[in-house]
Amino acid sequence: MQENKNLCVHYDRCGGCSIQEIPYQQQLKDKKEMLLEIFSDQEISTDNFEEILASPDIYEYRNNMEFSFGDLKKGGKLQLGMHPRGKRYDVITVDHCLLVDRDFRDILSTIIDYCRKHDFKKYHIKLREGFLRNLIIRKGINTGEVVANLVTTSQVEHDFEPLSRELQNLDLKGELVGFVQTINDDFSDQVSCDEMKIHYGRNYFYDKLLDNKFKIDSLSFFQTNTKGAELLYSEAADYISSAKDKVVYDLYCGAGTISQAIAKDADKIFGIEIDQDAVKKAAENAKLNNVNNAEYIAGDVLEKINNLKENPDLIIIDPPRPGINPKALDKIASAGADEILYISCNPKSLARDLVSLKMHNYQLEKFKAVDMFPHTKHLEVITLLKKEN
């Protein structure tokens, strides 16, 4: 684990990190205190808190970055990077960012130079004019495969073959396996895909977590800290001891990474995920990993959990940051599993849901934290709940 590096040259203006000036061991202490305080405020006992685990890497740990095009002043020089703290519409170029490795920085620099040379304009969300919106770079940390995804509107037709050749000729640590363009004419800030153009290679890459291989496209969810995710899943596997011969519900399952990593020996896995593309990826990943006991269902947990015919022995939950819809949480608890493994990236919504689960006679057996996001205030928490008779 690296320590005592100089601060990132962008840190005084960039909003990507918020606590980089704090020594890493102190960051861990502060996050632990924050977590325990949130639980105590909800009158959740913290006696069974085990530990907070450091991220294996605290610099260059991210496998996914979404950069924005913009400027620092109206009509100013085109920028590609992050929003400065507290400024939603300004953008600062972050070509020396320390959260990502050299491949990200080299690709970003190549693309911003090309776009400036061709005088492309940023997309103006209020005027709904302009061409450039985002650059998404994804990398398989354990495979080295890299995909660059340029997100634009349809307002300009351009042949990106010269840029594609430049990217292919970069001396990367990894390997560029895809350069794609996502056409996004949606009025919101969120990246959506109206059309995908593949200028080189493919729109997906492979990465490995523990003993499993996963196929990830340029817009699908995957844990952003690969080495941290391996630590998280290893700890989660220890919490459930074994899924052997159990019926497992994997709720908010995404591309199926957690259950395929820690519950391969289950009797049956039922995964539910609202994102249809993620469900397709989960099924593909199950084939990749020779997981033949999994069934993935597209839809809302609140509705689809009613359709599952077999009662669960173990429920794995990894919801988005807002936590779980209270009605869905009631149904999850009513399924009557002996154990619930709840993994959360938001201690506040986790604490709220734990209070609700306690009303269904689920007791918090133990919990620990894994720092997946060094130099930010975010934290991942693993909890194990057991049902009292």
Summarize, please.
Helix content is 26%, strand content 27%.
Describe the secondary structure blueprint for this structure.
Blueprint: H1 24-41, E1 49-53, E2 64-70, E3 79-82, E4 92-93, H2 102-117, E5 132-139, E6 145-152, H3 161-168, E7 175-183, E8 195-201, E9 204-209, E10 212-217, H4 226-240, E11 247-251, H5 257-262, E12 268-273, H6 276-288, E13 294-298, H7 301-304, E14 314-317, H8 326-334, E15 339-344, H9 347-358, E16 362-370, E17 380-387
Parallel strand pairs: 1-16, 6-7, 11-12, 11-14, 12-13, 14-15
Antiparallel strand pairs: 2-3, 2-5, 3-4, 5-6, 7-8, 9-10, 15-17, 16-17
Classified in CATH, the superfamily of the largest domain is Vaccinia Virus protein VP39
Low-pLDDT regions: none
| Average pLDDT reading | 94
Helix percent reads 25-40%
How many structurally independent domains?
Answer: 2
N-to-C series of helices and strands: HEEEEHEEHEEEEHEHEHEHEHEHEE
The CATH class of the largest domain turns out to be: Alpha Beta
Main beta sheet strand tally, sense and closure: 8 strands, mixed
